[in-house]
Amino acid sequence: METTDSPLSVWSNRLTASGTPVFARTVREVSTVAAKEEASARDLSEVVSRDASMTARLIRIANSPMFNPVNRGVDTVSEAVVLLGFNAVRELSVSLALIEQVLKGRSHERVTRNLARAFHAAAQARSFAQIQKDKCPEEIFVAALLYQVGEMAFWSADAEEAAAIERLVGSGLPAAKAEKEVLGFSLRELSRELAEDWHLGDLLKDTLDGKVTRDGRVNNIALGHSVAQAIEEHGWSSKQTDAALKRLAAHLNQPVAAVEQLVSDNLRDALRIARTYGVDKLESVLPVAVESEPPAAPRAPETVVQRSPQEIQLASLTALATALESGSSLDELMRLLLQGLHQALGFDRTWFALLTPDRKGMQAKYTFGGNADNFLGSRRALTGSRDFFQVLFDHGRAGRHRPGDIAAEASYLGWIAPGECLCMPVKLNQKPVGILYADRARANTALSDADLDTFRLFGMQIPLVLTLARHGG
Q1: pLDDT of residue 217
Q2: What is the Cα–Cα distance from 223 to 335, expressed in whole angstroms?
Q3: Which residues of 430-469 are buried (b: 16+ CB within 10 A; e: fewer)?
Q4: Rounded to 10 degrees, what is the CA torsion of 275, 278, 283, 286?
Q5: Relative to the CA of 341, which of 122, 153, 289, 405 has its CA 20 to 30 Å away?
Q6: pLDDT tens-digit readout, 150-160
Q7: Is the Cβ–Cβ distance between 424 and 456 less than 8 Å?
Q8: Nearest to 115 by CA among 89, 149, 141, 92
């Protein structure tokens, strides 16, 4: 049993802490949810929704043909959990956080190779699982994607030890031996340590341990990586690839010719899947996939395409994540957030009001739509314990509110429009800081539960924006 001071533990902690605050927090919080036996889909959804970039990518993946062949619309993390399952979303979230961090890290040839191998092997393993009618091929895909988590994390870090390992490998020493000589452990062992520390699931840990299971799930992952490695390092016409294909044919009980075609198709799909994750430029590492791609169809004349609410939501959250990472000002971040929410759901008016320093009133700090310019900067006092906004601060959460829910006081004029509206109290470190509001009063169109989910998703980004802006990103 490893002690807390072992080289493996030291490196695991180092890699977790070396990422951006968003990455470190996301891995920690998702891992905490994973470790709780009583954790619910709602717990996981709330954690994931705090990371705008992860949320946007997860929703994009959940709507992709690979994960959503029936084309069921997924607009929220909660819907993604229902569609893909708790375990798949949990591990998918960590893989997204890791891949995003890897892409930001040191530009190294090995990082590109690791990513290419991960997507190639994951596409293969998922296909094998589908043939065997696995209950959740998505879990197989994510476990295969994270199989080299230690390698990806290490080579994306700016580690002094990397150069020493490269020199030894260049002199002819096998990679695993070079890693052990420099680090005291292999990167395969680091993958196992991270899988334990980040609670990446028993399936991945069993695969890294080399266990054999009756259901064949571990074998699907191991064979996915074996086939991918043989093709990438030795090419199609090699004895290594022939041997890997024969082992796979026996595992799937399929003719070798059929398996060869299957593997070729999967190799082509790997590039498409990687692009869905936001990873491109893997063609130089997987040239075989490009050779068999059909020629591109002639491009039609460009036309103006009306973006769907889901596309606007994805683009807005992605833009917000980029702005967060680049250290944009609080005003710019809040403008992006409110504008994205306003446009994604077609609101007539959207505003965010901050509590005044004495906590006895509110001031409209950011507004969109309606009489935004006139309303900006407006102040109102909290009139007591029965004040609608005070009740929200004390006991409320994001919800739909109708005229009957709100006292018809003159003090609300200009703050709440006639008809239904959405309101959400925003808290930072468990303390109220403001109110997020939106309505469609002029359009007079109904607000749905899906609208509320999206509204809540955007609102959950505000504490993150306030925290990072306060600490300079």
Answers
A1: 87
A2: 49
A3: eebbbbbbbbbbeeeeebeeebbbbbbbbbbbbebbbebb
A4: -80
A5: 405
A6: 888 888 776 78
A7: yes
A8: 149
Q: Kindly give, in sequence order, each residue whose CB lies less than 8 Å from that of residue 245, ignoring residues fewer than 6 positions away.
A: 227, 256, 259, 260, 263
Query: Any residues with CB less than 8 A from the CB of 139 and at least 6 apart, and which?
Result: 85, 87, 88, 91, 201, 203, 217
Q: Which residues contact 322 (CB under 8 A, 6 or more apart)?
A: 53
Residue-wise pLDDT tens digits, 65-103:
766 666 667 777 777 777 777 777 777 777 777 777 666
As a whole number of angstroms, the distance between CA 360 and CA 385 comes to 11
Q: What's the CA gap between 94 and 366, in Å, rounded?
A: 33
Which residue's entry shows tokens 């994951």?
122
For 303, the 3-state DSSP assignment is coil
Average pLDDT for the chain: 78
The pLDDT score that the predictor gives to residue 36 is: 64
- Alpha-carbon span 350 to 454, nearest angstrom: 13
Secondary structure class of 349 (helix, strand, coil): strand
Q: Are 181 and 7 in contact (CB under 8 A)?
A: no
pLDDT for residue 424 is more than 90: yes
What is the spatial order of strands in the sheet that 399-401 belongs to? 379-381, 361-369, 349-355, 431-439, 421-428, 399-401
- 3-state DSSP percent of the chain in helix, strand and coil, to 5: 60, 10, 35
Q: Where are the beta strands (DSSP E) in 162-306?
A: none
Angle at 49 between CA 312 and CA 40, to 5 degrees: 135
pLDDT at 292: 41
- In angstroms, rounded to a whole number, what is the distance separating the alpha carbons of residues 262 and 253? 13
Cα 68 from Cα 20, distance rounded (Å): 31
Burial class (CB in 10 A: 0-12, 13-18, 19+), 326: exposed
Closest CA to 191 of 155, 162, 231, 216: 155
Q: Which helix (H) or strand (E) holds 377?
A: none
More confident residue, 1 or 333: 333
